[in-house]
Write a structure and sequence with these properties.
The protein is built from 14 helices and 17 strands. It is α/β, with parallel strands linked by helices. About 50% of the residues are buried. It binds pyridoxal-5'-phosphate (PLP).
């Protein structure tokens, strides 16, 4: 059968200016109805597992559209959005410069299977802002960037071993989906079904913030230079420098996963902030202006191991996509040093506001800040200590987080549905939005602990 795409509800959809293909879910009764219908064709109703409300319970809000700092669900509820597509959005949703760039680019065609000027310009922009990236290769997601970097590191060094750290996340890349044991070096334990032991047999998962002693079968050390997938853990003084020195000692490559931190902490990412130069850097999120993208950048001699110059294969039908590169260029064009200073001030304000609102409501919580990024930890376990590794981060009270999450959601504030995600503010979180946020947060949390 090959019928046309149907309206959800022809009358309601047409009245709301919804088309059958650009569907905003207007013709559906509720988040629940849409989510249930999704779950009949999409496993678990989500296309990224982290979006499901498994960790916090309940039904996800289903987004109809978004603008600036706000998302609107199919029921018409307005939420102040602190998810910002898990950090991919930095200028705010539907930023006019980005949408204009996408619109113009779409009129030129959406993919050709040939080189384009925009991918060249985006590579130049990255290389200029992040000097360690003498060469840049694009792909379509952060996951693709890390998996390409694994292959490249192994191909370039002729070695197999990969080192990662507990609590760091590098996307759905088999070799990096190894789970460690109890905080010590752990060899080859798959962190998910479907990854055979062989795929992670050469992956070591070590404690974050401790410089390991490497041997010379290590191809690369992969690290989130600021860990933003276990709440927010900053690198201990000397950690990144120590990794650099240890990699140099044994001839391993140092790979910074800056999928979150790249172009969010500042133009030069975490490597500029901490003044440590990796051999390779993985990007995603911000460099695509909210469209699908990933990139690996790095030392020329290492990058030139990629085909067609070298023998490490990489290819992608949509890699360097004309729309994603246009959106990325438009986003980067707005991001000056002044903007990052402003974003850092907003992050500090938001963190202090959340802390005060929680303490006013008797909720033990802390909200560490690194530059423009904010983390969250709940409960009394840590006292005033900020976590420095995954074991400490895991003492967060996940049940309390779920309670806070739902209170805020009902009060018109969207956090990520997981206790280990970061809080994202961007250019659209203006003073007036932050004032509204403060009112919504304190109202929502009042009486929660009674
Ligand atoms: C640090 C880090 N690396 C890699 C990825 C994977 O990126 P993507 O979701 O674009 O595949 C993520 C995703 O959140 C991430 O946080």
């Amino acid at each position: 059968m090959n019928s046309p795409i149907p309206f959800c509800d022809a009358n309601a959809c047409v009245a709301a200016g919804c088309t059958a293909t650009v569907c905003r879910g207007i013709g559906l009764a509720s988040n629940q109805v849409l989510f249930d219908r999704s779950a009949l064709v999409i496993p678990g109703g989500v296309n990224s597992s982290i979006r499901a409300f498994k960790a916090v319970g309940g039904t996800p809000y289903v987004v109809s559209r978004a603008e600036g700092a706000f998302v609107y669900d199919v029921e018409g509820n307005e939420l102040i959005d602190l998810v910002q597509s898990y950090g991919a959005i930095i200028l705010g949703h539907a930023h006019p410069k980005v949408t204009e760039a996408i619109r113009n680019a779409a009129g030129d065609g959406t993919s050709y299977g040939a080189p384009t000027p925009r991918e060249m310009k985006l590579a130049e922009a990255i290389s200029e802002r992040v000097p360690s990236c003498e060469r840049v290769r694009f792909m379509n997601s952060g996951t693709e960037a890390t998996s390409t970097a694994v292959r490249l590191a192994r191909g370039a060094t002729g070695r197999k071993r990969i080192v990662t750290f507990h609590g760091n996340f590098h996307g759905a890349t088999d070799a990096l989906l190894a789970a460690g044991g109890s905080g010590l070096a752990t060899l080859g334990l798959p962190g998910t079904a479907g990854v055979p032991e062989e795929a992670v047999a050469n992956t070591w998962v070590l404690p974050y913030n401790v410089v390991p002693t490497l041997d010379n079968d290590v191809a690369a050390v992969f690290v989130e230079p600021v860990a933003a997938n276990m709440g927010l853990v900053s690198p201990a003084p000397g950690f990144l420098e120590g990794l650099r020195a240890e990699c140099d000692r044994v001839g391993a490559l140092l790979v910074f996963d800056e999928v979150i931190t790249g172009f969010r902490l500042g133009s030069g990412g975490a490597q500029a902030k901490y003044d440590v130069k990796p051999d390779l850097t993985c990007f995603g999120k911000v460099i695509g202006g909210g469209l699908p993208i990933g990139a690996v950048g790095g030392r020329r001699d290492v990058m030139e191991n990629l085909t067609p110059l070298g023998s490490v294969f990489h290819a992608g039908t949509l890699a360097g996509n004309p729309l994603a590169t246009a959106a990325g260029l438009a986003a980067l064009n707005e991001l000056s040093d002044d903007v990052y200073m402003e974003l850092s001030a907003r992050a500090r304000f938001t963190s202090a506001m959340l802390r005060d609102a929680c303490s006013g409501a008797g909720i033990p919580a802390q909200f560490p800040v690194v530059g423009t990024l904010i983390g969250m930890y709940f409960g009394n376990e840590l006292g005033t200590k900020t976590p420095t590794n995954f074991a400490e981060a895991q003492t967060t009270d996940e049940a309390l987080y779920a309670k806070v999450f739902h209170a805020l959601l009902s009060g018109g504030v969207a956090l990520a549905p997981g206790a280990y995600e970061a809080v994202f503010v961007g250019l659209s979180h203006t003073d007036s939005v932050l004032d509204q946020l403060a009112v919504r947060v304190s109202t929502a949390l009042k009486g929660l602990m009674n």
